[in-house]
Amino acid sequence: MPFEVFEDKKNKKFYLKKEDGTMVNKTFNSLQSAINMGKQFIRYREKVDSKVIDNKKIIPKKAPMEVQSVLFEKEKFTLQKAKDWLKKHNYKLTFYGKGVDETKNMYRFRQVAPTRFDKKSYRIKELGDGVKLVLGKKEK
Questions:
Q1: What residue spans define the domains of the chain?
Q2: When you count CB atoms within 10 A of the terminal residue's CB, does the N or C end of the chain come out lower?
Q3: 27-31, 36-40, 44-48: least confident range
Q4: Do the beta carbons of residue 2 and residue 58 sit within 8 Å?
């Protein structure tokens, strides 16, 4: 449930109002305090992780997914063509001096260490033509 943040300019206080119109029974001295309380309240009630402020409204937002690796099907790419594709699309060719990871069917070019991601967040996005991205949410 999103919250709206209201400012009482006369008294220099902030209030949270739930989407159903009821007010949270607390006042805040700063906008940031109200937002932080709203996040805690939303996390507890809705189990939503992150929020953004848009026109003084707190709305749920998913954490951005980042590219962990780029995969190429060997059936459609030679190693050189995969490297050319990476250069053209501004991806890394090496990861800490290590080149490509090779399996029977795929070439994998790591972009970020897998240890920096939440293990449960990984997704594969198929770009077509034998190219796939391994996406994940970075741990905080």
A1: 3-61, 66-136
A2: C
A3: 44-48
A4: yes
